[in-house]
Design a protein that fits this description.
The complex is a heterodimer of chains A (358) and B (281). Chain A has helices spanning 21-30, 63-70, 92-96, 115-125, 130-144, 159-171, 189-206, 217-223, 241-248, 316-326, 339-357; strands at residues 4-16, 34-47, 52-56, 78-83, 99-103, 177-181, 209-214, 226-231, 234-240, 251-258, 266-268, 275-277, 295-301, 304-310, 329-335. Chain A has 358 residues and is α/β, with parallel strands linked by helices. In chain A, helix 7 (189-206) links the parallel strand 6 (177-181) and strand 7 (209-214). The longest helix of chain A has 19 residues, at 339-357. Chain A is globular, with a radius of gyration of 25 Å. Chain B has one domain (23-279). In chain B, helix 2 (38-66) packs antiparallel against helix 3 (76-90), helix 4 (96-106) runs parallel beside helix 7 (157-183) and helix 7 packs antiparallel against helix 10 (233-240). The longest helix of chain B has 36 residues, at 244-279. Chain B starts with 10 loop residues before the first helix and ends with a helix. The chains are: A alpha/beta (358), B mainly alpha (281). The interface between A and B is large, with 43 and 35 residues.
């Protein structure tokens, strides 16, 4: 049986319109006008036990709304859902013992107290057997490597340290499903990586089902096996992450700060006027890397150079190595395409596939 | 699926015991959390000292100008200890409305609803922990002042035994009021103003400057009939001037106030939760 079953689940918010000015306020008091916002259009999907699902989309796509419906906090406008066989909004209390939710921007650790105290409190709230709880707590402290912070007041922890404690706290009662709403938001690259590694490790050890929402493509790539992309309340893609990577995440953007001026590495095509990266790849005898090789110059100004590399055609390392031969690299950032671009690409692909089929 | 980590409740007693442990733990954690603020509470207690000292001097002057040793049944000793008792409760009020307001606005409420504990009881335990810390420090500091200014109190044993019960009920009434006001954050920006109004009404009509006996009629009767008198005046008078029939009357008044307030709280809470359920908070 699926651990999460969603059938035509939808949510429309009705808000009262407030007109500006005194006359407007009076009017909206006497004869209110309502505005309806379809946050989640009827969506359907199911999750098997042990799956790692990434629920991604831009801000306002309906991710948090969906999680709130699945955790029983929000009542849907229509549709059905079952989590662990229970209807979330009708059996919330029972369900809350078997699931956990972590919201990246909210904390459940008591501010002035060490995580240790919050953990002990959660043990009582979830009605845990104290002996089992202590074993479980020690195990999680080791896995999450938070032994050093257990006695430090939460307010003194960095965001990354606190997030690890939050995750450990959420897992104390051995939930079968864990809902993570933007767990890596605001974290630096290293802290993000740690959280992702921990989630992967935990899944391997305990087989917990993970439902992760994010607008960071890195979260999906590294943690999840399946991705559902949602935009304007609609599911636009439900595919294995491998497919997502292959089709939509293959282009990486590299931002370089060079010692030499960027123009020194470029060549301009006299016919088209376009700029090309002109460096020698270690394995190639060609001097130029044309667009067909999958390297595109996005921006070249002063000592800054921005490239878009299609990793399905050219891996990153040789390109960077070649650049390094021509100039010292003072700073480098490699980033995934932003969510908006991924969505746009999906729509484009759909359009193309649509015309191919139609 | 391994579910042996938690024990399902067996029977009503087990459920009650688990709940008590649950909210007892919340209260303990709240106490610990508030001990981090102990310096702030201590400085507030000094404010209590200043207030009570000034008031006690004013009353001394009033007493001597009237050439009386007793006013409306209260000696100067009674008066000062009454003021300390009333201010101890009055100045121990935590920022409950503000916290509930913030939890509603920030969406933290939705997070807390996802846990297997009652939002109301969780907050009550948290509030109680905080209030007890403040109450204790106020009582200690205030008592030291009163001892210095007027010497030992003339409490009766009955008064000392009855005081914790009626004070606890007073704290519950305060909780019901300020929690309900905090939930109004769903509909208004002005929860702080409503809370302020309630607290001022409590101070004025609840007898913090003087026992209600000092008020002229008909204000005295009105004030005594209103629920505000059950919060400060009632417990403080019970301690300083215990009278059995008044104690019983106070208990009734507190219980009725609590029942009515509790119903209002539940109604507001229900509507608020529906709002979260429909609008996401």
């Amino acid at each position: 049986m699926s651990i999460i079953e969603v059938e035509a689940l939808a949510k429309t918010f009705r808000t009262r319109e407030r007109a500006a000015g005194l006359a407007g306020s009076l009017r909206s008091f006497v004869a209110p006008r309502y505005r309806e916002r379809e946050a989640v259009k009827p969506i359907s999907f199911s999750l098997e036990p042990g799956e790692l699902l990434a629920f991604i989309g831009p801000n306002g796509a309906g991710k948090s709304t969906t999680i709130k419906m699945l955790t029983g906090i929000l009542y849907p406008t229509s549709g059905k859902a079952r989590v662990l066989g229970l209807v979330p909004w009708q059996q919330r209390h029972r369900l809350s013992f078997r699931i956990a939710s972590v919201y990246g921007q909210k904390s459940q650790l008591w501010y002035h107290l060490p995580p240790q105290d919050t953990f002990d409190l959660l043990a009582r709230i979830y009605e845990l057997d104290m002996r089992e709880y202590r074993k479980r707590r020690d195990f999680l402290v080791e896995v999450f490597d938070i032994g050093d912070y257990m006695r430090t007041p939460a307010r003194k922890l960095s965001l990354g340290e606190r997030m690890r404690c939050e995750l450990a706290a959420a897992l104390l009662h051995k939930p079968s499903v864990i809902f993570l709403d933007e767990p890596t938001i605001g974290l630096d690259v290293i802290a993000k990586q740690r959280i992702r590694d921990l989630l992967g490790h935990l899944h391997a050890e305990e087989g917990v089902t993970v439902f992760l929402t994010s607008h960071d493509a890195g979260d999906i790539e590294q943690v999840c096996r399946r991705a559902i992309v949602i935009n304007h309340g609609d599911i636009i893609l439900d595919a294995p992450v491998a497919k997502l990577k292959r089709d939509y995440l293959k282009v990486k953007t590299i931002d370089l700060l060079l010692e030499e001026p960027a123009q020194a590495l470029l060549k301009i095509d006299s016919q088209t006027g376009r700029q090309y990266l002109s460096v020698q790849l270690p394995t190639s005898i060609h001097e130029e890397l044309l667009d067909t090789e999958g390297v595109q110059v996005l921006k070249a100004k002063g000592h800054g150079l921005k490239l878009a590399i299609d990793t399905s055609r050219t891996p990153l390392e040789p390109v960077i190595a070649a650049v390094m031969q021509h100039s010292h690299i003072l700073d480098m950032t490699i980033s995934d395409p932003p969510m908006e671009e991924i969505i746009a690409t999906i729509y484009r692909q759909e359009g193309r596939e649509g015309t191919q089929q139609g | 699926m391994d579910t042996t980590i938690w024990r399902p409740g067996r029977g009503a007693w087990r459920k009650v015991s688990l709940s008590l442990q649950k909210y007892g733990a919340v209260m303990r954690v709240s106490i610990a959390n508030n001990l981090a603020y102990v310096m702030e509470v201590f400085f507030r207690a000094l404010l209590l000292v200043v207030l009570v000292f000034i008031l006690s001097q004013l009353w001394r002057a009033t007493f001597s100008s009237r050439g009386a040793t007793v006013l409306s049944g209260f000696s100067i000793n009674d008066m000062v200890w009454y003021l300390v008792a009333a201010e101890t409760i009055a100045m121990s009020l935590p920022a409950l409305t503000r916290r509930i307001d913030q939890e509603v606005r920030s969406g933290q409420l939705a997070y807390l609803l996802g846990r297997p504990s009652s939002y109301i009881f969780y907050n009550f335990a948290q509030y109680l922990g905080e209030r007890l810390v403040r109450l204790t420090i106020n009582a200690v500091v205030g008592s030291i002042l009163a001892l210095i200014v007027v010497g030992l109190p003339h409490f009766t044993w009955m008064g000392i035994l009855a005081w914790p019960l009626v004070t606890f009920l007073a704290l519950c009434i305060d909780f019901v009021a300020y929690f309900s006001i905090g939930l109004l954050a769903f509909w208004t920006e002005e929860t702080a103003s409503f809370a302020l109004i309630f607290s001022r009404l409590t101070l004025v009509l609840g007898g913090v400057l003087a026992p209600l006996e000092i008020f002229p009629e008909p204000l005295r009767s009105i004030a005594q009939a209103l629920p505000f008198s059950t919060i400060l005046y009632g417990p403080s008078r019970t301690l300083v001037h215990f009278e059995l029939d008044r104690f019983v009357l106070l208990l009734w008044q507190q219980l009725i106030t609590l029942a009515v307030g509790g119903l209002i709280l539940l109604a507001v809470y229900r509507v608020a939760i529906r709002r979260v359920n429909i609008n996401g908070g």
